[in-house]
## 1
Amino acid sequence: MRGNCRLPFLEEYPTPHPLYVLNGFMFTLLGLYDLASVAPRSEAHSLYLAGRRTLTAALPSYDRAGVALYDLASTHIAPQSYQAVQLYLLRALSSLSQTLNTGGTPTDGRRTSRRLPKGREHPEAPEAAARGTHRPDVWSGILTALGQEFTADRRRHSVISAPSILAGIGALAHRAMTTPPRSAEIPRWNKDQVMSHLAGVTWEREVRRNGYQPESPWDGVAGKFSPKGRFSVSGPKEVGHAVFDALVDPESPGGRRIRTPLP
């Protein structure tokens, strides 16, 4: 970092100038990890390891007095839902770091490296920190309660790492924020209220009852089954609100569905 470090950074989407979107980069690392597990002779493993080193070096540049930037091309502080997404992604990557050797061979910088900027100070960052908008007690409670879902053994069976699910959890945790950023019209919750709405939620992607076709507690809430019978979680723009509605209202049809006990 500090304007003179060249490390591989995988962009979330093509733009005329690099943006260095944090959550997109971390999602890419998770994808590379999965690809490396099924294609061990591909470049995925070395790309993943090199990307982990980039992430370690880059994270301080995203920090603005306790809140995180969305990217390094602007002073845009990530919305509260994305603050949660970024925390969950870091937790997921932390669990993976225990199963891979981080001393792999870096990728060819001429093909994958770009100069990472320092990022610019957001004028409201000190005030945001003073208000305590990040509420680490809420985030730490959520991560402690749901951390098992991010382990390597659970990730393929759980919906929790999907962006739309993370966005819904982040929006739920937003209720515990101060005003601003929480709108004064939204009742403020404490940590226990947030955690009570996450208790009893079934994070399983698919379940089978008596050997029949697979079902999903999240079918019709966060996604649907493909013609081949696999459940697919839709993106935050499509189902983010539906996920949040199901989490925030246990008595709604979606809320009851995602809290249905497993067989």
## 2
Amino acid sequence: MIRGPLARIPAGVCSVLAYLAALMVIALDPRVHGSALASSPAGVAAGRLLQLLSSGLVVDGPAWPQIALLAIVLSAALRRLGAGRLWAVAVAAHVGATLLAYAGIGLLSILDQQLTSQVVRVPTMESR
């Protein structure tokens, strides 16, 4: 049990802070390769479904502006939705949007496999 001033921080706030901290560590630690966490259509087809979730920890591009903006959006969503609904919506949106994009890539590959051959094998985020 946590005692003292930290005990007064709501669990939802702690979950958002922990997520943002994880994003910063992964984005800034050169030993962590985002491509190992990122998903790809081929990876999902091969059954590596955990990467659908771990890809939510990968920041592609300049990390600080994206994480700062995400902190603002998450704090507003936390106030409006509460922690449980926030994380349910976030996971559903992340996984759903990824699967929808992969379905589109799959349809394009039926039309022209050469058009999508590079996209299917490469994780959605290249290593830094």
## 3
Amino acid sequence: MKTSEEQSASSLVDAPQGKKKVGFCLLIGGAIFMIMGGVSMYLPSLPLLENAFHRTQGELQFTLSIYLLFFALSQLPLGLLSDRYGRKPIFIMALSMFALGSVITLSAENYGLFVVGRAIQGLGAGGLSTLTKTMGRDVYSGDELTQITSYLGVVVVGAPFLSLIIGAHIDQLLGWQGSFLILAGLAVTELILVSLFLPETFPERKRQRVSLRTLQHDIGIALHNKVFLRYAVIFAMINTIDVAYNTVGTFFYQNTLHLSSIEFAWLGVCLAVGLLMGLFICRRIQGGRNDILGCVLFVIVSTMLLFVSFAKIESVPSLLIPMLIFSVGMGILFPYAFSKALSAADHRVGLYSSLMGSFQIGVSFSASWLISLSYDGTLLSFAVIVAVCTVVITFLTLATRLAE
């Protein structure tokens, strides 16, 4: 017997199975890779950009913050448009924006134009983020949704670190422009493949016109959905730690510890292994204990980072070991929180996904911006952000457990 949730999802459109399921995951995974690449592929090149544009470390870190800001701003409107006009046309629109932003950034001759390109990239990435979450929820539910999420989680896990490695090697060959050349090429390729092969997952009979009154009503319902809110906040806190690490790591490893961009990038392989271990554990845990185990690991990470910060220990292991443990915890908790949050959504999955994504990236933008203002070459600002996020995750996990 199917649950009402599974019946609701399956009534929308036939879920891709077999080879079509693999193709669906590859197309969605390709978009996720670009989103993550927009964050991390150019990080090894930040010291080169510092010299090219004659800007400070804080100003270069701000180019990540502006990407995240416009990422957050585009999710709700593009999510609503997908509820009205279908997923595929808005997916194509978002890909086009990402490709345009990549070209502008690639050809930028000054810092101002570079920031404009990053903003347009962020707009496209925000739409892609909403739709990659929504389209999976359109056609899958329950355990199958968690399984698909864990498969795509491999891309979420691997993309930042593979992007770092690609970026570190390509800037040796083509300079800082190389990363954006690759992102532009990927966006155009994905645009062609999506136009030809990606199915529409939200049929016309289910689409709705969006009025201001209806939007206010639906947002109000979503914001009163306690299960959705708790897991959406947990999801956002995990992502915030990850983004904060990306903001701090490149300058800490390269400028403070004097590692090369390639050495910095290959450290990411260790974190990728940790994430894969976490995803493996996530698929094996029974009885919904992912949240408790994830919290325990995050508390350990926070304690370690605060210790090394106040003790002023500056070495590769002082950051790498805590982040390896975090990576395992992220792999355990990230797909669990995502599937729980969207499983609490009703038929307005696009709206719920947009709200979750906007909150996720909005919080990450705030953390990234604060670090760009306060980073002094040490790990203290990063450790404080990890501690705050860990407290929030632990509190909400315990509150959810007590409410069950």
